[in-house]
C-alpha cells in the first residue's frame, strides 16, 4: 500500500513534499530548485514548502512524470517554472494538459524525447520514457545519481 511521506529533506539535495493525495520531489542545488511533478492543491503545497524553507517562486523547472491531475494540479503555484513533459503523451491527454499549462501562465513548456538530456544551471537531467498506466510516462536521472520515477 502506498503511504505518503511527510514533507522533509530526504538526502543532501532532495526534498519530499506531501501534497494531500500525492508526494512530489524537489532537487535543490545551490540556487537551482527543480520539481519532479507539482503535487495537488496549491494552498496545501505552499504550506508544506514553508516547512522546508522553499519559496514557490524559486522553482525554475518542473519535470512531469505523467499528466495525472494529482501530479500537475500545483503547477500554477510555480509561476517562474518552465514545464518539461514527455512528447509521447497520448494526443487526447496532451491536448488537455497543454490547455491547462497555457491557463497556468508559467514560463512555457518543452516536450522531451526518450533519452534527452536537459541542463538546468549545473544540474543535468536525463529523461526516459517508462511503461506506466499513462502512455508517455517519464522518469528522470539527475546528475547520473538520483532517479525520479
TrEMBL record:
CDD domains per the UniProt record, alphabetical: metallo-hydrolase-like_MBL-fold (cd06262)
Start and end residues of each Metallo-beta-lactamase domain: 21-147
Domain of life where this protein originates: Bacteria
Matching PANTHER family: EXODEOXYRIBONUCLEASE WALJ (PTHR47619:SF1), METALLO-HYDROLASE YYCJ-RELATED (PTHR47619)
Protein name: Metallo-beta-lactamase family protein
Amino acid at each position: 500500500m502506498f503511504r505518503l511521506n511527510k514533507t522533509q529533506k530526504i538526502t543532501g539535495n532532495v526534498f519530499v513534499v506531501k501534497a494531500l493525495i500525492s508526494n512530489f520531489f524537489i532537487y535543490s542545488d545551490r540556487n537551482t530548485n527543480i520539481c519532479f511533478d507539482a503535487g495537488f492543491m496549491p494552498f496545501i503545497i505552499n504550506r508544506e514548502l514553508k516547512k522546508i524553507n522553499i519559496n514557490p517562486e524559486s522553482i525554475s523547472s518542473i519535470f512531469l512524470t505523467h499528466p495525472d491531475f494529482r501530479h500537475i494540479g500545483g503547477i500554477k503555484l510555480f509561476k517562474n517554472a518552465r514545464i518539461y513533459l514527455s512528447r509521447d503523451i497520448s494526443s487526447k491527454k496532451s491536448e488537455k494538459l497543454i490547455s491547462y499549462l497555457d491557463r497556468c501562465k508559467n514560463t512555457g513548456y518543452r516536450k522531451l524525447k526518450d533519452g534527452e538530456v536537459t541542463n538546468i544551471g549545473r544540474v543535468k537531467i536525463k529523461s526516459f520514457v517508462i511503461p506506466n498506466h499513462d502512455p508517455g510516462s517519464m522518469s528522470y536521472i539527475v546528475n547520473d545519481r538520483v532517479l525520479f520515477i
